[in-house]
C-alpha cells in the first residue's frame, strides 16, 4: 500500500469504515425473529453494530454465532439472543428513523426489545440454563443502560439535585461545603461540555468514546 494511502487511513473518521463480514451473505436473520422480514436491512444493522459496539461489548463469538444461524442450530444462536442483539444494534444504525426514541412502540429497536422480553419470560418460566440466554441478558442490560443515558441527557441542569451532605458538626460543615460546591460546579461543567458537543455534532452518529461520561451523568441523575 502506498504510504500516502496508509496515512490516510488514520485520519478518516471511525464511522467512515465498513465492516466486512462474509458470513452475513449466507444467513437470514429474519428466520430468527417475527419483528422484521427484511434481511437486507437487518444485515446493514448488524454491520453497524459490529462496527460501533462489538469491540466494546463482545458478548458472543461471531464465527459460532453466524455458523449456528446459517445452520439453524441453537447452541450458539437463539431467537432470544437474536432479538436482544438487534434491540441494541438498532441504536448503531443511524439511518433508522427515530432510532433514539426508545419510548416509541413503532421503532424497530422497541419492537426487538419487546420481543426479546417476551422470549425472556418464556425461557425464565422453563428454568433452562443456556449460554444464549446469558448472552441475551447482557445485551438487554446494555440497552437499558442506553435508556438511562438518553433519558438523563435531555434532563435540565437545574433539575439535578445537589448531593446530600453528610451529618457533620458545625466545624466540619465549614470545610465540607466548598467540596460540595466544587462537585456540583464540575458536574454542571461536564454536562455543559457534553451538550455543546452534541449540539455541534448531532446525534446521528454513535460516539462510543463518550459513553462512560454519559453513563456517569445518567446514573448520577437516576434517583429511583
From TrEMBL:
GO terms for biological process: DNA-templated transcription. It holds the Pfam family Fungal_trans. One of its GO terms (molecular function) is zinc ion binding. Residues 47-143 form the Xylanolytic transcriptional activator regulatory domain. Keywords: Nucleus. InterPro entries: Notoamide_regulator (IPR053187), XnlR_reg_dom (IPR007219). It comes from the Eukaryota. This is Xylanolytic transcriptional activator regulatory domain-containing protein. It comes from Fusarium redolens.
